[in-house]
Structure formats: structure tokens, C-alpha cells
């Protein structure tokens, strides 16, 4: 049965054996970046970032078109999130994220993307390249592409014609994320890709698995369109937690409620089951809204918990970004509660 609770700030696992020792986070982009920063604050022995590989824009798009490699942008961002906070780690984060300006061949490329490409050529696989950069940068975890081949994203979109019932196919991650229509469903191409075995192992051997936040259709859902990933999620003994977005995003999820975000997860993976759904406590305040979310979460077999997880700016105003420290507290409290059941 789905339950709600607003966890007090002190309701956090404090003993080492109450904390997850292995955290595996699925996602991509800025949402995964914040989640990984939160995961580091949970003090696990191992963090695994399982990253989507469907990006086709900017530097990543150019690299996959010209070289046929997996798009490195989201992989690079995950590496940057896992670099040490010490002076050396700060240099590595800035180095990985440095983007060339100007108007020449390098314009727009991130240095970290080029490092991943170069080491992939030298070492034979993107996984070896990512592991080497993690070693050199002193990263506190491991970055794992969900597949070893680039994926394409295709969406059914309504609202692009005068007749709102008409559906059009929109292909490509950038096109899906920026469509002025409403995304109804997405699929990946190829439809049954070979997953990275390291990604499956990271899910099976975790104590805590997180999914989201992030661009819902282009960074979160692609993971659960891979059958072996959903199977691993059903087999793992980990506590599985969905971290819901703070707001809907212009384009792919414009106008989506929290309830709708949960429903589309079920729509795309009918056998998906999770334990927890974390929602920002200021996002839903009315009893009716919480009741709707309760019903939606029940379809995933999940309980819902509300926490303050929003970042604040210098003036104390809430932003649309998850705060790593607050999210860490929420993850630990949710993990401890789920383990106690």
C-alpha cells in the first residue's frame, strides 16, 4: 500500500551499516549530475552512474556522426560530478567541462568529450576510456554507458497539426526534447539493443538504485526501454527509488503533473516495479494532488515520501534544481524507511 510521509530532517540513517554501500544511479544530463553529487554525500563504498547514450546534439552529436562512437556528453558530465572536491578534483572537473569557443573545428566541443574519444581509440572501448579517466581524476565512482552502441530516440508527438488527434514521428533526442508538440510515447532504435554487461551488474549488485530526475523522455525513460535493464531492476535486491522532477520541462513534458510523470513510466515499462518515489514537499501540497500521486505510485508498487529537495539561490528563493545535500538526506531517509518495512 502506498503511504506518504514528510520525513523530518533528523530521520536519516546514521550508522554505516544502515547506509547503502553501493549506489547505482540511472539517468543523464544535469539531473544525473545532481543525483551523483547527492550520492557522494551518502558516503557509499561505490557509486555507479549508468548513463543513457541517445544524445545527438552539439559536440556529442558531431562525434557520433563523424566517428560512430557513443555520444560522450552525458558520460563526461557524470565523470565531472564524481571528481574529488579537493583542489586537484576541482581542476579535473573544470578540465572535463571546458568547452572551446571560436568558430573553428573545435568550436563547441567539450575537452572531456575529446578525451573520452581519444582514449576509446587508444584502449578499444568507451568503458575502458571512462575507467581510465576516472582513475586519473580520482573520481569517487564509475561511469557506465547503458549500451556500448549509440541509440536513437523516436517519439510519437501530438499537437503539431491543427487536428490534435494526429500523431507525428519525431526522431532524435534534440528534436524530442525541443518539440513544440506533446510527446505521447518514445521508443529507442534499435528496439532491443545489447546492454552493457557492466550496467546490468551495477544494478544487480547495488544496495540503492535511483532513476531520475532528468529530462523524462530523453534521459530517464530510455533506460527502461531496454528489456534487460527492466529485468535487472526486477531481480536486484536493491531499494529502487524514483526521484521525480521538480517541474515539467518546456517541450517534452510541458504541462505534466507529478502524477503524469509516474504514469508514463508505467506506460513504457509495464513490468517495472520500484520501492520509493521521492517528491519535493513544496511541489504538491493539496490532499487531492497527493491522493492522485498515491494512486499513480501504487501502479509501480511504490510508496511516496515528500522531502524538501530544492536548491535555493543566494536570496533564499527556490530554484528548479535539486540540492545535492537535501537530496542526500532524502535518499538516506527513504532507504532507511524502506529497509525497515
TrEMBL record:
Main location: cytoplasm
Stored Pfam families: CofD
InterPro entries tied to this protein: CofD, CofD-like_dom_sf, Gluconeogen_factor
Keywords: Cytoplasm
Location within or outside the cell: Cytoplasm
Cited function: Required for morphogenesis under gluconeogenic growth conditions.
GO biological process: regulation of cell shape
Keyword Hydrolase recorded: no
One GO CC annotation: cytoplasm
Top-level taxon in the UniProt lineage: Bacteria
The name this protein goes by in its record: Putative gluconeogenesis factor
TM regions (residue ranges): none
Gene Ontology MF: a single term: LPPG:FO 2-phospho-L-lactate transferase activity
Entry keyword annotation includes Cytoplasm: yes
Similarity remark: Belongs to the gluconeogenesis factor family.
Protein's organism: Corynebacterium deserti GIMN1.010
Amino acid at each position: 500500500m502506498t503511504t506518504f510521509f514528510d520525513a523530518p530532517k533528523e530521520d536519516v540513517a546514521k550508522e554505516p551499516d544502515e547506509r547503502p554501500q553501493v549506489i547505482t544511479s540511472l539517468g543523464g544530463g544535469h539531473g544525473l549530475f545532481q543525483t551523483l553529487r547527492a550520492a557522494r554525500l551518502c558516503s557509499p563504498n561505490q557509486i555507479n552512474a549508468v548513463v543513457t547514450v541517445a544524445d545527438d546534439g552539439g559536440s556529442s552529436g558531431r562525434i557520433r556522426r563523424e566517428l560512430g562512437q557513443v555520444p560522450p556528453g552525458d558520460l563526461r558530465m557524470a565523470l565531472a560530478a564524481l571528481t574529488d572536491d579537493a583542489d586537484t578534483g576541482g581542476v579535473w572537473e573544470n578540465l572535463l567541462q571546458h568547452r572551446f569557443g571560436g568558430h573553428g573545428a573545435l568550436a563547441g566541443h567539450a575537452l572531456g568529450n575529446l578525451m573520452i574519444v581519444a582514449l576509446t581509440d587508444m584502449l578499444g572501448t568507451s568503458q575502458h576510456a571512462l575507467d581510465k579517466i576516472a582513475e586519473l581524476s580520482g573520481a569517487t565512482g564509475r561511469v557506465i554507458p547503458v549500451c556500448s552502441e549509440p541509440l536513437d530516440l523516436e517519439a510519437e508527438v501530438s499537437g503539431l497539426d491543427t487536428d490534435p488527434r494526429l500523431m507525428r514521428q519525431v526522431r532524435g533526442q534534440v528534436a524530442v526534447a525541443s518539440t513544440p508538440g506533446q510527446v505521447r510515447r518514445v521508443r529507442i532504435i534499435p528496439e532491443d539493443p545489447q546492454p552493457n554487461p557492466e550496467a546490468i551488474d551495477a544494478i544487480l549488485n547495488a544496495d540503492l538504485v535511483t532513476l531520475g530526475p532528468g529530462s523524462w523522455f530523453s534521459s530517464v525513460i530510455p533506460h527502461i526501454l531496454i528489456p534487460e535493464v527492466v529485468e535487472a531492476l526486477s531481480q536486484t535486491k536493491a531499494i529502487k527509488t524514483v526521484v521525480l522532477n521538480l517541474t515539467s520541462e518546456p517541450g517534452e513534458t510541458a504541462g505534466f503533473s507529478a502524477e503524469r510523470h509516474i504514469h508514463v513510466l508505467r506506460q513504457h515499462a509495464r513490468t517495472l516495479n520500484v520501492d520509493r518515489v521521492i517528491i519535493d514537499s513544496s511541489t504538491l501540497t493539496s490532499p487531492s494532488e497527493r491522493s492522485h500521486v498515491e494512486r499513480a505510485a501504487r501502479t509501480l508498487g511504490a510508496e511516496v515520501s515528500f522531502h524538501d529537495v530544492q536548491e535555493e539561490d543566494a536570496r533564499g528563493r527556490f530554484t528548479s534544481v535539486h540540492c545535492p545535500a537535501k537530496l542526500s538526506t532524502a535518499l538516506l531517509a527513504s532507504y532507511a524507511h524502506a529497509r525497515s518495512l
